[in-house]
Amino acid sequence: MSCSIVMSSMHGMDLDFNALEDLLTKNKKLLCLVPEYEYFVFNTHLIYHLVNERGMSGACITMNTSGDVLFNMLNAAHVRMEEVYIIDCVLRSIGGAPRRKGRCFFVDSPTDLLGIGIALTEISERIKGFNRKKFLFFDSLTLRGMLNALQFPSKVAHFIEQRCLLACIDIAILSVERESDKNTIKAMRTIADETLQVASALASKPLPSALSFLTPA
C-alpha cells in the first residue's frame, strides 16, 4: 500500500505529522520515500516527532553520516537525546572506533548483522519503562548494505521483523531518497508494510537556524 504527505511547513518544529498517526500505529515497517534535497531535514523532524511528541525511545542505524554527525544534527534540533541511541556503521569500517561510546554503538558495516543484533539487544535493555514505545530507524545506505548482504528483500524484511520482535520494537522506519534507482525502490517497497510518499515543499522554505547547517551547499 502507498499514501502521501506534503511537507506543508518545515519552518521550526511545526511539521504536522498527525496524518501519520494511523501509519505509525498500524504498521511494523514503514518506508518513507523522501526528496533527496530534504532527506536529512525530514529525518530529523520525523525523529523529533517520535521522541519529543509521541514519547518514544529508539535507535537510529546510520551509514549516511557518522554517529557523531547524526547526534549533533538531532541535538541541534532539540531532540531529547537521552531517549535516542545510535548504531554507527561508518567509523569501524575505516578503523579506530571502539565498540561503544556513550549512547553510540559501532559495528563494522551494515552487513554486520550479528553486531547490529547485539547492539539492539543491549539498547532495548537500556531503555527504561516496560510500556515505553520503541522505534528503529534505518537510513538509506544502511538498508542498501543490508540488501547487498542478504541479497533478497524478503530476508531483509525477516531480519527487521525478528529484531523488532526480540527487542520489543513497535515500528521500524525505513528512510530512502525517492530519487533512488527503480530496483532499490522496488526492493524497499517489498520490505515495508506500507510506503509513505513525501512531497517536496522545502525548496522555498527557510530552515530554522538550528538546522541551517543541513542546507546543501
Low-pLDDT parts are 1-14, 202-217
CATH class annotation: Alpha Beta
Residues in helices, as a percent range: 25-40%
Count the strands? 9
The order of strands across the largest sheet is 1-9-2-8-7-3-4-6-5
Along the chain, the helix and strand elements come as EHEHEHEEEHEHHEHE
Structural class: alpha/beta
Report how far apart the termini are: 35 Å
CATH architecture: 3-Layer(aba) Sandwich
- Report the average pLDDT across residues: 78
Number of helices: 7
In CATH, the topology is named Rossmann fold
Instruction: Please indicate the percent range of residues in DSSP E strands (runs of 2 or more).
Output: 15-25%
Within CATH, the superfamily carries the name P-loop containing nucleotide triphosphate hydrolases
For the sheet with most strands, the description reads: 9 strands, mixed
Q: What gross morphology would you assign?
A: globular
Key words describing this protein structure:
217 residues; alpha/beta; Rossmann fold; 9-stranded mixed β-sheet; 7 helices; 37% helix; disordered N terminus
Structure in words:
- This protein has 217 residues and is of the alpha/beta class.
- It has one domain: Rossmann fold.
- Helices cover 37% and strands 21% of the residues.
- It contains seven helices and nine strands; from the N terminus they run E-H-E-H-E-H-E-E-E-H-E-H-H-E-H-E.
- A nine-stranded mixed beta sheet has the order 1-9-2-8-7-3-4-6-5, with helices on both faces.
- A hairpin with a 2-residue loop joins strand 5 and strand 6.
- Helix 6 packs parallel to helix 7.
- The N terminus and C terminus are likely disordered.
